[in-house]
Amino acid sequence: MIVIDNLLTADEVQHFRQVLATVPFNDGKNTAMGMAAGVKNNGQADAQDQQVKHLANALLAKLGNHPQVVSAALPQRIFPPCFNRYSETQTYGYHVDAAIMRIPNTADVLRSDMSMTVFLSDPTTYEGGELVIQTGFGEQSIKCAEGSAILYPSSSLHKVTPVTQGERIAAITWMQSMVSDQHIRETLYQLDQSIQSLINNTNANRQELDRLHHVYHNLIRHFSVL
Ligand SMILES: O=C(O)CCC(=O)C(=O)O
Ligand SMILES: [Fe+2]
């Protein structure tokens, strides 16, 4: 589970919120698959709306270019982000995200390996609305600052607790990774993070760094499936 701090700048968050305040929202149940529909109670911005498409594309471009997102998810495909809104009393009970998702208006499908929530509301403006994820170490409850995001394995059970005051707006998306094995993906992420911090360390031995870089790329070559 990885927090991406400041994925969006304050200005970008404000722009997203301003646009989302003007676009039509539909019942979130319409896009839930199978059992998830029974526990889903939120609103979802109309994905056919031109302004919503524009925001989704802007976020998509941002994700594909973000070094930490790329390092953690090794994305091959990213689902066009959706925008959801939980008003007072709204909630999304425990569910697992569908393993295979059809990318709207295309013939392509995506296997969800990693799920992402980008928090767009200032956390001091709403109560409740925590994203709770079941992990091997118990439940983790997450409420990020506006503009920050959480990336977590799509295989996990998760829920959004009821909003008891205010309104929670977020963008959500799913990624198919070039490396489907979660454990290997995590290990590659750790290796890359170490390499990146050595690159920024002026005392690091250049030859050793080149060797680590070489190892990282050969591991990607070995484990990625395109
Ligand atoms: O809003 C969130 O943080 C997560 C929503 C969710 O789990 C979903 O739409 O599948
Ligand atoms: Fe979900």
Automatic annotation (TrEMBL):
It comes from the Bacteria. Residues 77-177 form the Fe2OG dioxygenase domain. It comes from Alteromonas profundi. Binds 1 Fe(2+) ion per subunit. InterPro entries: Oxoglu/Fe-dep_dioxygenase_dom, PKHD_C, PKHD_hydroxylase, Pro_4_hyd_alph, Pro_4_hyd_alph_FE2OG_OXY. Pfam families: 2OG-FeII_Oxy_3 (PF13640), PKHD_C (PF18331). PROSITE patterns: FE2OG_OXY (PS51471). Its cofactor is L-ascorbate; Fe(2+). 2-oxoglutarate binds at residue 168. Fe cation binds at residues 95, 97, 158. GO terms for molecular function: 2-oxoglutarate-dependent dioxygenase activity; iron ion binding; L-ascorbic acid binding. One of its GO terms (biological process) is DNA damage response. This is Fe2+-dependent dioxygenase. Keywords: Dioxygenase, Iron, Metal-binding, Oxidoreductase, Vitamin C.
